[in-house]
C-alpha cells in the first residue's frame, strides 16, 4: 500500500466522491456540492491516484462537557478495495487530526447489519454505546 494517499477532500474530488457515495449509500443525483467549512470536512483515500475511500467529519461542541468531538459519517471504501486496510488508514489519519484539533472523542453510528464496518470500528478502539438513535423527518 505504498501508493495509498490519505488527504483532505478538495472540490476537484466532487465527481469521484459522489460516484463512490452513490455506490455505497445509494445517494441521490441531486447533490450539487460538498461544502467544507471550519468545522466540517471530508477526507479521501487515493490508491494509484484513484479515489477509493471517503469519510465526512464534523467537529461539534459539547457545551455541557466543555469539549469538542468529531462525528463521522459516510465512512466508505470502494467495494473493489475493501479489506486491505484502507479504512483503517483513513481512521488513523482522523485520529491524528483529532489530536491536533483538541478533540476529546470521536463518535459515529452504524447499523448492526454492517458487520464488517462494525468489526473495523471495534478493532480501531471504538466502543458500542447503549443508546438508540432517533430521527424525525421534517
Automatic annotation (TrEMBL):
GO molecular function annotation: acyltransferase activity, transferring groups other than amino-acyl groups
Signal peptide (residue range): none
Domain N-acetyltransferase: residue ranges: 4-138
Domain of life: Bacteria
One Pfam short name: Acetyltransf_1
Protein name: GNAT family N-acetyltransferase
Organism: Candidatus Onthousia faecipullorum
